[in-house]
Amino acid sequence: MLTLQHSYATDLDDEFWISWEGAEVPDPRVVLFNRTLAGDLGLDGEWLQSVEGAEFLAGMRTPEGSRPVAQAYAGHQFGGFSPRLGDGRALLLGEVRGPEGRAWDLHLKGSGRTPFSRGGDGKAVLGPILREYLMGEAMHALGIPTTRALAALTTGEQIVRQEGPKPGAILARVASSHLRVGTFEYFASRGDHDRVRTLVGYALERHDPELLEAEDPALELFRAVRARQATLVADWMGVGFIHGVMNTDNTSISGETIDYGPCAFMDTYDSATVFSSIDRGGRYAYGRQASVMQWNLARLAEALLPLFEVEDTDAAVALATEEVEHFAPMFLEQWTGVMRGKLGLADTRSGDAKLAADLLDLMADDGVDFTRAFRSLSDVLRGDPEALSALFDDPDPLEAWLSRWMDRLDAEGADREAHAASMDRANPIYIPRNHLVEEALDAAEEQLDLGPTRTLLDVLSDPFTMRPGLERYTEPAPSDFGPYVTFCGT
Hints:
By secondary structure, the protein is an alpha+beta fold. Strand 6 (90-97) and strand 7 (103-109) form a beta hairpin. It has helices at residues 7-11, 35-40, 45-48, 51-57, 126-141, 181-188, 193-207, 217-239, 289-304, 313-325, 327-343, 352-366, 370-381, 386-389, 396-410, 416-424, 434-447, 451-460; strands at residues 17-19, 29-33, 69-71, 75-77, 80-82, 90-97, 103-109, 124-125, 148-161, 164-175, 241-242, 264-265. The chain is globular, with a radius of gyration of 23 Å.
């Protein structure tokens, strides 16, 4: 059986967690298993897929001496504060140590009710579990920090949802931690600054041990989180990803993408794109993700405010305001860097952000596919001038932009094939296109056929390399698909 460590339960007192175990389920079975991840973590993949391993991954059977817990946290959800959320359908089994000694949380979703469930059944159904599995592995292959699925299990139950009964499921996922902005808010909202301080120390130990001896640990933690989030959101924007529910309880201080609910990748470029069924006002639209992350960071700064090493409250507020406001230029720098990579630019020049933004505006005006447009740019450099313009109904406005872009590339002095090769490493061919994701999830839920999901996982595992026979995975949705709406999966 797997050996687990439990720093969250041993280093933090029981105000941070509630001891709990997963619910008994009739027939837990591992239906998808991430052999690569298991190998990277030094785990026994054969045992984890056994009957005993499935019971462990369902939270039903834990090693003697284990301390599985439901974590406490609060959160701002669509701008409104909920002081007590916590793991309502989740369980932290403990931490595993990879071969390099790094700690990784092993965490379950859909493992049953906890004291944080707020009336819910604590269960999950197969479709949303597979969505998170697919999205996490796609993001990992794209080089974007993310939680990852170790396994997806069916439970042998039928769980009733609005659409009717669905196969019950549990996700076992791995992350560098499950500390959230909402974890800090939970104690700050209670005026419990001592536990906020304790949490700062624990967070630094997990994520930024080099900052433990800093003169102002809380401030340095904030700055580290801010930098990670600026990079993360820029990376999301670079692949057309929309998280869909960027509440503070879904904002990990590790800078990993967490809690894939109503998330999706864009086909047609539009900065106002929203897929979430519950985001009626567009709060978490594609183009608002940076400003929302800045808002979330402001909530973290508020939670840390009493810990800043300054002379008084006014000075702390001024410092926090300055630090939060610095997120915007940090994000712009990161986003511009991402877009330079997508455009094949190696040097840094002042007009690059506008060059990228102007292309996006042209794409928006003509309803052009985001992923195909950027990938086609390397074909243009290789001598196919129609590769991009063919995606436009009216390509005439594009000509002036292409001329500017070519001039900008030529100014760097490298040959065009070198630029094209670098762009091939920055612009994916394959993303989790929404119609293909839904096709896979429908087959799994309706027929318990995981073949399409496995095929899609294989395609997404190497998103930058063109492979013969996978043409349908590069194409946008058919005209009769949509309007596309995603759900939180609870």
